[in-house]
Fold these 2 entries.
Entry 1:
Amino acid sequence: MRSTPVQNDEEARLQALAEHEILDAEPDPSLAHIVELAARLLGAPAAFVSFVDRDRQVFHAKVGLSLCETDRDVAFCARTIAQADILVVLDASQDPRFRDNPLVTGAPFIRFYAGVPLRTGDGHAIGTLCLAGPKPRRSFTGRDRRILVDLARLVLDRLELRRVEAARRATQLRFEHIAETSSDAIICADELGRVSFWSAAAERLFGHTALEALGQSIAILVPDRMCGGHEGELRRIAHGTATGLIGRTVELIGRQKDGSEFPVELSLSSWIENGHAAFGVIVRDVSQRHVFEERMFRLAHLDPLTELPNRAVLRGRIGAAILEDRPATVLMLDLDGFKEVNDAHGHAVGDVVLQLAATRLRTCIDTMGVVARYGGDEFAAVLPGVGNPVVATATGQAVIEALAEPYHVDDLVVRLGVSVGIALSPAHGQREDELLACADAALYRAKVDGRGRVCLFTPNLREVAQRERTCRDGLRSAIENGEFVLHYQPQVDLSDGALVGAEALIRWQHPELGLLMPAAFLEVLDNGPDAARVGDWVLRTACVQAQAWRQSGLHPFRIGVNLCAAQFRDGDLVERVAAVLAETGLPPDNLELEITETIILRHDPRLVATLQALRTLGVGIAFDDYGTGYASLSLLKRFPLTRLKIDRSFVSGLCTDRRDAAVVRAVINLSRNFGLEVIAEGVETEEQRQRLLSKGCPEAQGYLFGRPLPAAEFAARFQGREQHTRQPSTAA
């Protein structure tokens, strides 16, 4: 660990620190508030104001930190005060200046640090406003830096007032020195309220020179029209009347020489001088502080994009309704189709849509309660006093109707739906987190049931939500610990049973529950943030395995890999597929990517372009489960498909239900007419195989030919068997 630097102005800096009389003082409540605000706004587990003495660092106001002081040698802040700008350390364990620091290697195990120096008006850095945390950060943005600097200005504002107040207890000579170097206006008055001292800062603030102000009534600080409030009390000093302002710091309206008015903060004290009363006034212009505080308030309470209250405000309103023992309704809302808007038209259009949606929500909720942006495309509302499920449901339906109206953004017309989940207090919970969880569970059910609808919470949804939450948490561990595995189901030539390929199917090797099929987790995974990451892992793993089998004698061999919607969102799927093929050496025509109706029905022009680019690479595109949903015939013309997969639900009824047989025959004929290959899924009997073969279906997969197997078992079963030399089709 490198030693901390010492300033060239060290003695003057220590003198400036001493003038604040703060090192061993009780924490200032106003500083504690700023520290809490810093931690909340910037997402830091710890925040503090520290002061750097000769040999130690003292934590004056803090949150999330148990230390009271440290040696200066190990203090991050000792380095912060040595520079002009903010100091940011994203990972202290990787920084040569700090990696051996005992605060990094031991408790409190600091990894992330950001601090801004607190410089007095004459340039001395006496301390810092800092953030810290036990985990490294990837970034500390320009916006984060600006917020921390603004908060540091508020800290300095409070500190300067403390310095001047300390000066009132000093000798006259020291008082006058501090008064002349302070940015605050310092004014003294005699027992008749006549000005006896007028600092340089007072001249700058009020416009009166010392010559003009001396002997004048102290009432020149406030407008003549102000006879009430704190201004009136200040005027009464001039008439020798006792005032309640003494010993207090208050805000009032000040008046400049030219008559203009501005907000000031004033601190008044009195003492006896030569047997007569005397008054001292410290005044500062708080216009800029109001600007900062307004900005900090907005950051702490309002969503910056929509200007709706944020989730912290929402939780507070729910908590207030519960404390007042009033019924309340909580609504959770999610915009259906918003991700597709972002994907198709960009985030700028998406932001405008969110702003328009927020405006409509304000109108719907009106004076009934508070609507907030909960995050992303999620909103929430609380309706205090509303406990009737009929009223709550009607409000949810009104929200759906309002948000379903088209959104006009420049020349675009965007249409969205919305799903709403509702929970009631006290019926469904008596804590804000419990109510929000219940509303979220109801929202999830509304989306599962078809979207665009309202769902009122019922107790059974709690169990469903808990299962989903457990699954979601488990999936995170599965990704981190590499618990996913691939099984491979053989695809064969129906005429002779020759292996032509395999479909790669994901499984979860759960450490406690054993091997889990996709039905147990795939929906939660697809709707979570890691779907694309897992999908890319499946793609690469399957291609590596397919190429290994080809090189060991399994050829021709086509590997089928299922894509998820999330893999299309970033717009670089083609590049990722090309990179995997180049890395593994697998020929493009030996890879077949399978897409579902959920993906293909997005009608996104970029989707068509992506699929066309994949076809240009030579990769096959299969439409999985064709015929089970709403996909129209026109899609077969618009999309660059190479294969249709006949769903197992039709194959299972092929020999017993003439309607299923008709669907199978129709899909085979469509494939032939559109120049597409076709494969049947779920073949389990010899009779089904014969029927498919007679109808002209060339390939199939199913338990008749083999269940999905781990790679080693698949190889043991099929490797070494004589393979036919027919190449896999890449029909356009």
Entry 2:
Amino acid sequence: MRRLATLLALSSAISLSLAPIAACAESIPLGMPAPKPVTTSTTAKGMVAAANPLAVEAGLRVLRDGGSAVDAAVAIQAVLGLVEPQSSGLGGGAFLVFYDAKTGKVTAYDGREKAPAGATPDMFLGPDGKPLPFVKALLSGRSSGVPGAIAMLSLAQKEHGKAAWNTLFKDAETLADDGFVVSPRLAGMIVSRAPQASQPDPVKYFTKPDGTRYQAGDILKNPAYAQTVRKIAAEGPAALLDGPLAQAIVDRLHEGDLSSSITLEDLKTYQPRSAPALCRPWKVYSVCAPNPQSSGLAVIQALQMLEHTDIGKRGPTDPVAWTLLAQAERVMYADRDRYVGDPAFVTVPVDGLLDPKYVAQRAKLVTPTAGEAPPFGHPKGAPKVGIDMTKEPGGTTHLVVVDTAGNVVSMTTTVESIFGNGRMVGGFFLNNQLTDFSFSPKEKDGAPAANAIAPGKRPRSSMAPLIVLDKKGKLVAALGSPGGNAILSYNLKAMVGLFYWGLNMQQAVSLPNVVARGDSFSGDADLFGPEMLAALNARGVNVKVGQLETSGLHGVIVRPNGVLEGGADPRREGVAKGL
């Protein structure tokens, strides 16, 4: 536990003065290798926290020019798709939660990919009726859904933007034409064991004229990407979903074995969704998240369950506190895995899952010792659904923007796995989002899984960008993380650190992660240190030496004097930077 206490002390040492418009950056030794110094920031104006400094600068440029938080998010996404293509891009999907400072309203935008009209429940089953090997499905054309991130951003920007759409892609276009510096994280992905990295398109893209792969520090140009963002700037999402690029997407996904059934009509008819965000009371706050098929409701449920424990009287050096956190995770996953799917196709018992009486009942399973995996519950309104067989690798990225008017974007965006399914069109990677469906559509008794595949259906997502408001409806915090299924655990940990343990944003995102789902436990072993590991294992939370959880948390919190304080996860390459 000494190592964890040292981490907190070091993080406290860089807690910043909350004087307006102050900013600094220092390195926090975390007992684990980090590709960059941790950067934290405070400001009385706007702020951007995202996974690559080039993307952060693109967002800040938009804010300096008078653009809104949504305007900045468009620019950030365009750059991230170029410089961090292993995580998100033009060919992927996203969830965005927007806080309007003038009205206090929180709106959830759903840019999740959808299955083509020709999708079938057995499309990921082999001739023997058993689920296909995951990698085989992942690399196939049929793993891709209709991309929705750009269409969703276009909708949000029309409703909350201030800048002209065609001005928001300048940084991405310039970086693609002139070249950008390959980061250490991207360089590692290029030569990783991920199956996509060895596919023809990424091999061609990431190989220099001399036959060697691009390395950290090299300059990589992508003129095809520049041309694509020019088209999107001029034509909007139709540039992707209707026309030559759309045809190229269809053609590329029809190639090879297990080809897609996707058509031009599937792309042309895609529509993003928007609705009031899912907001529920917790402590003296209101926590807002996207609606299902996002899994934000699971984080809210876990937070509400923890209110029935004494975790707030403990702290991050107490193994009981971490055990309570792990147990809350196990319960939230049990319910989430059973019931969450696309609400256009299945009944998701949101009110039942978040009913105070049900939450109190489920909280009885949040114990200071971990035993057998908790079963799923039976909330009011729950349909009969089968066991879930979804696998969800940990790609993805998260960003937070606060503009000078106080409007906020919290957005999680993804191509699903590393480089999506490894296929490229127009200089960008296509997603493998349909592998987020349950491969096995029915249980033995015939009950369909909530996340079973269906034509036009959107797969369940662990993406859960959060916004926290006070009792007057004013912004308190915004945060989120990538990480596949572990996103819920990462977000929950950060919320616990901020609101139960009183940490600042940088401390909260830098905390070790523990991920507990069913009988599986994982965590940042080196960050916890041997004493805490021993204490956790003694309580049944079996985190093993050598484990690592590479979250990518980014967040902003508003202090009582109105100053914004940002945090960026030291496990990745992001920064939080104010105007």
